[in-house]
Amino acid sequence: MINNRAEYQRMFEVEQKLWWYQILHEKVLYQIKKQFKKNKNITILDAACGTGGLLSFFQANDYQHSIGFDYSQHAIEFSKERNLDVSFGDLKNVDSFRQGETFDVICCNDALYFLDDEEIVNALKAFKKRLNPNGLILINIHAHEAFSGTHDVAVGSSRRFVLKDFAGYAKAANLKIDNHTYWPFFLSLPIWLVRKWQRHQMRSGKIKNDDLHSDVSYPGDFINGILKTITVMESVFLPTAPFGSSLFLILK
Predict the structure, then answer these.
(1) 141: which strand partners?
(2) Predicted local distance difference test score (pLDDT) of residue 5
(3) Per-block average pLDDT, block size 10, for the chain (252 residues)?
């Protein structure tokens, strides 16, 4: 995905209105407010920030000390269009980004799949070194191989993760998983059915590699509203879900 400008364009166009991004951003903000209450002077790093949707969300909520990095020049260019403080950085070499700066919150959403196991542990160790006392590391990653489909191929992902994987990574990095949840649980069945159909289409050759693209597309206001409402209800009634296509973790 790093060199696929079209995918970043899709992300840029919908990142502030698509239900999935809205829910993820709210999950991140909830944990920040839970930890830091009304303090909005905290420093936040969005590692592998993509086109800057989360950073824009922070700024809209008056968290002005937020910066990001990304490996893709396309992502950086789109972030700059939002007037965000984003520059080049590499998850394989976090130490080289703005050396000496530390942060109260480090976010890394849907990016660690680019790394192998050892590199993930090294990235977490680097995050830990850059974290202020009482700080948070917030991670979202796509989960469970049953949910793999055209999206995975389009964004360059060769695997999905489960909690056990990150329990091992966290232990190796001397971090603690303070909380976690899979999500969206209530939408698991329809997502699984869509992805299963996609895998069948790929195996049968009915979907060509040149035609593959991610699931990052806006379904229209009505459908988007329904999907968001369902997932908001899930967050209220099932804050820690046992299954879902994404895994959200809070590390300390």
Answers:
(1) 247
(2) 75
(3) 73 92 97 96 97 97 97 94 96 95 97 95 98 97 94 82 98 98 97 92 76 78 97 95 97 98
Question: pTM score > 0.85 for this model?
Answer: yes
Three-class SS state of 206? coil
Describe the crossing of helices 5-14 and 73-81 by its angle, rounded to 10 degrees: 30
HSE-CB at 60 with a 13 A cutoff on CA atoms is 12
Please give the C-alpha separations between residue 23 and each of 30, 64, 96, 104, in angstroms, as whole numbers.
10, 21, 31, 22
Q: Which residue shows structure tokens 């490996």?
A: 71
| Distance set, CA 78 to CA 15, 19, 36, 63 (Å) | 12, 20, 29, 20
Compute φ and ψ for 200, nearest 5 degrees: -65, -45
